[in-house]
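re: the backbone from monday

yeah here it is again, tokenized this time
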């Protein structure tokens, strides 16, 4: 991308929820375009998953919802996701998807999706404390829990 191109900025709020670890889980994102006040939401759920996978899925789905290259400010309460994107991923790739202790990277399939998505955008990362009355984080949490509960409820006879 050349320096003369001006990227739009979008705000991506994400959260994941899991009942048991592993267990049924849900994820949610809110994507805001401040210039137009447009908002997009997304949710999903899986029957047998982990909290970290749901946190990752929320970011993946949110980035997939961004249709053209943008400056994306990611807001998450997951240090795992934010540190993975900001600090760890490049080293994992250099080591063939191995951690510093030479163990396979957990959730490699999702990290690989994030690796491809992060190359399309200019990302910045903002950690927010979970369950601390941050409006979008609280909303994402409610949406993720509702998605998980809908999946569980839908499976009952």
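seq for it, each position gets an aa:
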């Amino acid at each position: 991308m050349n320096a003369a191109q001006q990227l739009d900025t979008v705000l991506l709020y994400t959260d994941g929820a899991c009942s048991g670890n592993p267990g049924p889980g849900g994820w949610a994102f809110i994507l805001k375009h401040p210039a137009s006040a447009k908002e997009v939401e997304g949710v999903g759920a899986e029957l047998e998953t982990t909290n970290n996978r749901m946190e990752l899925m929320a970011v993946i789905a949110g980035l997939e919802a961004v249709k053209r290259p943008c400056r994306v400010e990611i807001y998450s309460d997951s240090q795992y996701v934010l540190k993975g994107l900001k600090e760890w991923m490049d080293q994992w790739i250099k080591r063939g998807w191995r951690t510093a202790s030479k163990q396979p990277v957990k959730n490699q399939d999702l990290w690989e999706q994030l690796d491809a998505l992060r190359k399309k955008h200019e990302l910045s990362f903002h950690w927010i404390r979970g369950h601390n009355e941050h409006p979008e984080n609280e909303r994402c949490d409610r949406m993720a829990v509702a998605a998980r509960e809908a999946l569980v409820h839908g499976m009952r006879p």
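The helical segments are 51-64, 79-94, 108-118, 135-155. The beta strands are 9-18, 23-33, 38-49, 71-76, 122-127.
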